[in-house]
């Protein structure tokens, strides 16, 4: 690191009043706030964000790494600074007098090594033991987050992918909530689609008095689903009735809606047992919830010339993809993409989310790539470096896969 020169925080030449630090976020954020004040005093003509990292060596607890970047901006402009080290010395000197920092030293080309006050650390630990850890919560630039996770399919077993999504999503939710962010925990269950036609018809056939039955009488939904699927594949007459049942369900016929609700209730009870074991709280807003919003969302995209007819279906052609994003099937029915478009619209315009995070298997990457690109063409606008800025709303949208984060267009 090179030779160091040291400056006591309480002995700096300039001693502006220290900012209020209680409840001001993590230690790193508090140090960053102090460094930001010093940077404004050191180079008021340059607008720069503090670069503060945890020290890995023996020279301090935190390190400010702004000096070299500032030198590249001010050299040759008549500045009084001779080199990056001189800028580092000024940053250390201009740190506000406070009880947080014991000392600040400069090494090499302006690295400012900051040592925390042991008495301040001791007081904060005592405060944490007495009053809890909430005062250490990081301050995030967001107040409301929609977190889409778990999302199993009705009448199917919750598999390991759903469990991963559930656990990762709940962990993220708790982290946000710890930081005083309002988290809307959304369970986007698969409770709609053509498979419900065969389930409903099989229910009518197997249990003529289905309305009077409890959930135990139907038994294992997995077995029930497989039996109905076998019947659907092997019996043309049953398949025809199942397809008609879908039309009646989507048309709102009471008998079919009631049967659908019973099947969903049985499945929901099974999911809730898992959530109870994991101590996970979720609010269900499944695919069916967003159905009423699909037509207006598709109309908006269509009015912008983004939806085209192709082989009897309505699609969005996505740059970089050979196959289009189908939003209305040949038979006029909606699908996952149309539902996801409506869900995103609802989360932006009704729930007023600032961040939206999808916790999902990386195997769905292509769907999300196409889905978000379609949204970008419709109501998202580009900016440099691959990031996005809003046209109407201020919102970041991410899919989160198991092994990595990938930032995608914000809206």
Automatic annotation (TrEMBL):
Q: In the UniProt record, which is one GO cellular component term?
A: cytoplasm
Biased composition annotated in UniProt, kind: Polar residues? 1-13
Annotated InterPro entries: aa-tRNA-synth_I_CS, Arg-tRNA-ligase, Arg-tRNA-synth_N, Arg-tRNA-synth_N_sf, ArgRS_core, Rossmann-like_a/b/a_fold
GO-annotated molecular function: arginine-tRNA ligase activity; ATP binding
The EC designation for this entry is 6.1.1.19
Pfam families assigned: Arg_tRNA_synt_N, tRNA-synt_1d
Has keyword Cytoplasm?
A: no
Q: Which UniProt keywords apply?
A: Aminoacyl-tRNA synthetase, ATP-binding, Ligase, Nucleotide-binding, Protein biosynthesis
Q: Region Disordered: start and end of each range?
A: 1-21
Positions of the Arginyl tRNA synthetase N-terminal domain: 29-116
What catalytic activity does the UniProt entry give for this protein? tRNA(Arg) + L-arginine + ATP = L-arginyl-tRNA(Arg) + AMP + diphosphate
- Biological process (GO) annotations? arginyl-tRNA aminoacylation; post-embryonic development; reproductive structure development
Say which family it is in.
Belongs to the class-I aminoacyl-tRNA synthetase family.
Q: What is this protein called?
A: arginine--tRNA ligase
| Species classification | Eukaryota, Viridiplantae, Streptophyta, Embryophyta, Tracheophyta
